[in-house]
Amino acid sequence: MKKFIKEYHRPKDWKTLSSQLSDPNIVAAPVMISAKPLAIHDQNFESAIDLSGMYLDYIKNENGMIEIGTMTTLQSIVESDILKSEKLDTLCEAARRAARINLRNLAVLGGILKDLSGPG
Questions:
Q1: What angle do CA 33, 8, 100 make, to 5 degrees?
Q2: What is the number of other CB atoms lying within 10 angstroms of the CB of residue 42?
Q3: Which is nearest to 78 in space by CA: 113, 104, 115?
């Protein structure tokens, strides 16, 4: 049976996020836009979890390891000085080619990785 969104949550900490995603009484999923987004009525969950309050939008170089947060937009990847300085121009170009600029400003890395049918 098709599920419809009944709840919207924007957790600010990992404990709250974990409890919202693991609630056995309702089907919950994080909302992450891909380069080929689905219409809201094509989603199949009852509780929308907005991860924007979890500070998962970052690109950083820590001890020689590049870290990119799941809520980092494709446009941030395209423009990243960190990625360019580490000679990861191919990743920047792949993000640029995944969508037009208006969608790159909305689509996030997690959405790209989650969407098996999209251009990512």
A1: 15
A2: 8
A3: 104
* Dist. CA 101–CA 106, nearest whole Å: 9
The DSSP secondary structure of 56-117, one letter per residue, reads: ---EEEETTEEEE-TT-BHHHHHH-HHHHHTT-HHHHHHHHHHS-HHHHTT-BHHHHHH-SS
Give the model's confidence band at 120: pLDDT under 50 very low, under 70 low, under 90 confident, else very high: low
Residue whose token pair is 């419809």: 4
- How many other C-beta atoms are found inside a 10 Å radius of the C-beta of residue 33? 21
DSSP class of 8: E
Cβ(47)–Cβ(64) under 8 Å?
Answer: no
pTM equals 0.85
Contacts of 34 (CB under 8 A, 6+ apart): 107, 108, 111, 112, 114, 115, 118, 120
